[in-house]
Amino acid sequence: MIMSARDLLNQAAENLSIYLASCQVLPDGTVIRTKAQITRVGGVIIEVYSKEHAPPHFHVRYSGKNAAYRIDNCERLEGSLGTNEDKIVKYWFKKEGKDLLIDAWNKTRPGDCSVGKYEE
Length: 120
Hints:
The protein is an alpha+beta fold. It is built from 2 helices and 7 strands, in the order αβββββββα.
């Protein structure tokens, strides 16, 4: 299927909007990525934010609900999701998520972050 120029521009605008929603633009024009979307599993969005507090953790959004989970053991720290969504997060974490989260956490640590890189 060939996309029209309008469709291509709309797709590019949507992608740019998603990217900029995860960034902060400094007064000098520097763009800093403030969160990284790790994955989306059946509508469940899993993200890591750059300037964070201890312990290392990740954020999950689903249908207006938010929760945060520890990276070391996937224990919920705050917020709530539905039972099915919580099971999705824990299954994803167990199968492939922990290594992806550690990598994302370490790549998004700014120099002035009070919580450094994740170390086991």
